[in-house]
Write a structure and sequence with these properties.
Length: about 675
């Protein structure tokens, strides 16, 4: 009986909501605020947009969106027109006449969506077109102006009766369908929220989602933040990138399964995001495209733009996978994956389309990573998958070995533990985040000392930039060989705290901060050297010479690479250091008698597996090298040794490395010693 009452209540709520929304849409074309009214006239070429201000205050700005529609009631994305009237005094009216780009339409919809009064009160009328407004009053479909003779219409109430009849029919059908769905599927309100797809949501739901995204981004894994650094570096566009990323993350933050994620980010979702959320940018694109066309083709600019956006919306899932694959597997920035799509377009329209495609791709990738991170963070230490990955990680340092051994087991037994993830790239990301979680995010005493060398709190980017600069000035005197990015990302948590918009600004400028740190370190080194040389102090040079091959003082992979640069130089080779983020598998190129060796340096505490051998083999053609070399302070697994032999790769373990150091110290540089190691 209780279930029947619950279903009956749900039935009544849904039927009332449907009937109210349909009838309201039929009769609410006039604006809900009696102090303001809109009207429009059409005379075959122009539309005249009029705003009447009946209040005592001045209207600083009144905006409307004019959308041309075809006979099938479809809005033509390529003919969006903004109408804006400014500075309308109290009890006055404002008028603007807009030239329409075409007459190939059936009728016009006018959407009033923004009013700004002199006291800064802002009223919005179409939430989807400006979701950032604090107060929203929805007037349904706006009002309609037919493509006929001049006809002033401030609402089309003549068809209200027909709308109401239609509403009553839909009321019955909708209620019936709702009852059936409730009985069969038992959809929860939370599920509706998860897949709202941009529909109007209650204020408390919006606040809840914003808090979820705030926490997810501001406490995101270093893998996620490092990828965002790479994706946003050097991005120059008029699109508010942070806003798009936060919108995508917020709208998808209740998604719990991979299948829901794939369904959510559909062609329709992307087209709606472009149409409603980025319509100002789309207008710029259309104008840019029009300027590249011959005069007799400019009227078709909208048609071409719509076609390109359709292709883009279809291709975005492919771009998302490509970006993640290149970023995870190949460790490179994958902007070039989108270049093929825009290669045939003319500038500057080409740049507009590229930026649009790339930003939508990045925003989707960030939302996808947030979903993956959510699923990982739900696992606890008692979870079997958690324990399996923990045990594998203790046994094998090599990420790919853990991946290879865990994936078949995961697919057979534990897919439901990670939100139904079956996509290889999603599992690749989940495994990395889970391994980081298992390893823990607690800083060592030394790391804490570095991160907490200064205390500051920033609420905008200028304050953040100043705080980072002051921090560098302190730590740059004592710590001059840090892999600084990790420390910067930890520093953001102290300085930014729970401000996702500022965090994205910081991630976008992280590489610039890295360069600033290096500049400050070099400046400090020059100042110290100047003082020492004035005082005839060369103790640092003596220590440096004595320790230049001391493996015991090596702490980072970069330091190990620099040791090898000096070592092979002293052994008589010409050396080029290529190691950096985005390298193609080789950290050094050493040359002797026009014979090129590509070297990968691995400073590890445990044995190396197959991965570095595979990477160095893959780098040979890129660098036009004759032979590959892998150097480590540690040793190699039996499988790695077999693979190296099969691919003619030279392996130098810790023991052989000490032999090379002895040769360098003794000054033996007469022969190509690497060939002797074959």
């Amino acid at each position: 009986m209780k279930k029947i009452k619950t279903l009956l209540t749900l039935f009544l709520v849904i039927t009332f909501s449907v009937s109210f929304s349909i009838v309201a849409q039929a009769v609410s074309y006039n604006l809900p605020d009696e102090n303001v009214s809109f009207s429009a006239d059409y005379n075959s070429e122009n539309i005249t947009f009029k705003v009447v201000n009946r209040s005592e205050q001045q209207i600083v700005m009144a905006k409307a969106l004019i959308v041309l529609c075809n006979e099938n009631d479809e809005e033509l994305l390529d003919y969006l027109v903004n109408a804006s009237v400014e500075n309308i005094a109290g009890n006055e009216s404002g008028i603007i006449t807009i030239s329409l780009p075409t007459d190939d339409f059936s009728y016009i919809r006018v959407y009033p969506y923004k009013i700004v009064f002199e006291n800064e009160t802002i009223w919005g009328f179409i939430e989807e077109r400006d979701p950032t407004l604090p107060e929203v009053k929805n007037v349904g479909a706006g009002f309609r102006v037919d493509n006929s003779t001049s006809n002033n219409k401030n609402g089309d109430n003549s068809s209200a009766f027909g709308f109401i009849v239609f509403a009553l029919i839909l009321l019955f059908l909708g209620a019936l369908v709702a009852a059936i769905v409730a009985l069969v599927v038992r959809i929860s309100f939370k599920a509706k929220e998860r897949l709202s797809g941009g529909k109007k949501l209650p204020d408390d739901v919006i606040v809840k989602r914003a808090n979820i995204v705030k926490y997810e981004l501001c406490h995101s894994d270093l893998i996620v933040q490092n990828l965002i650094v790479e994706w946003l570096d050097g991005l120059n566009t008029s699109i508010n990138v942070n806003e798009v990323i936060l919108k995508f993350c917020t709208e998808s933050c209740y998604i719990e399964t991979e299948s829901e994620l794939n369904t959510f980010f559909s062609k329709k979702y992307y087209k709606n995001a472009i149409k409603f959320f980025l319509y100002d940018y789309v207008n710029k694109m259309r104008n840019s495209l029009s300027s590249t066309l011959p005069l007799n083709k400019r009227a078709d600019a909208g048609v071409f733009l719509k076609s390109d956006i359709d292709v883009l919306a279809n291709n975005l899932p492919i771009y998302v996978d490509n970006l993640l694959e290149r970023s995870f597997v190949k460790n490179t920035n994958a902007k070039d994956e989108i270049s093929g799509f825009v290669s045939s377009l003319a500038s500057p329209y080409k740049e507009y389309m590229f930026n649009l495609a790339y930003i939508l791709t990045v925003a989707t990738c960030v939302a996808r990573l947030c979903f993956i991170q959510r699923t990982v963070y739900k696992l606890n230490k008692e979870n079997e998958l958690y324990r399996i990955i923990e045990n594998l990680s203790k046994q094998f340092d090599d990420y790919n070995e853990v991946l290879e051994k865990s994936m078949p087991i995961y697919r057979q037994f534990y897919v439901s533990d990670l939100g139904g993830i079956t996509n290889n790239l999603n599992y690749y990301a989940a495994l990395g985040i889970l391994r980081n979680r298992i390893a823990g995010t607690e800083l060592s005493e030394r790391e804490s000392e570095i991160v907490n060398a200064t205390n500051a709190y920033a609420i905008n980017f200028n304050q953040l930039s100043l705080a980072i600069s002051e921090w560098f000035n302190i730590i740059g005197k004592k710590y001059q060989n840090l892999e600084i990015r990790k420390y910067i990302l930890f520093k953001y948590r102290n300085v930014i705290r729970d401000n996702p918009n500022l965090l994205l600004d910081g991630l976008k400028e992280t590489k610039a901060f890295e360069r600033l740190y290096r500049d400050i370190v070099e400046k400090n080194k020059r100042e110290n050297a100047r003082e020492r040389y004035l005082n005839n102090d060369f103790s640092a040079e003596k220590v440096q010479h004595a320790n230049q091959y001391n493996l015991d003082i090596i702490e980072t992979g970069t330091q190990f690479e620099m040791l090898l640069v000096n070592l092979f130089s002293d052994l008589g080779y010409s050396v080029k250091h290529t190691g950096k983020a985005g390298d193609q598998g080789a950290d050094l190129l050493v040359i002797r008698d026009n014979y090129i060796y590509a070297i990968q340096a691995k400073y590890y505490a445990s044995k190396l597996g197959n991965t570095p051998i595979q990477e160095i083999v893959g780098s040979l053609s890129f660098y036009n090298a004759h032979r590959g070399v892998v150097v480590t302070n540690s040793s190699f697994t039996a499988n790695a040794i077999k693979l190296a032999k099969a691919n003619d790769v030279i392996l130098i373990d810790g023991e052989k490395l000490n032999e090379l150091i002895e040769c360098a110290v003794s000054g033996n540089k007469e022969k190509d010693i690497l060939r002797d190691l074959s």
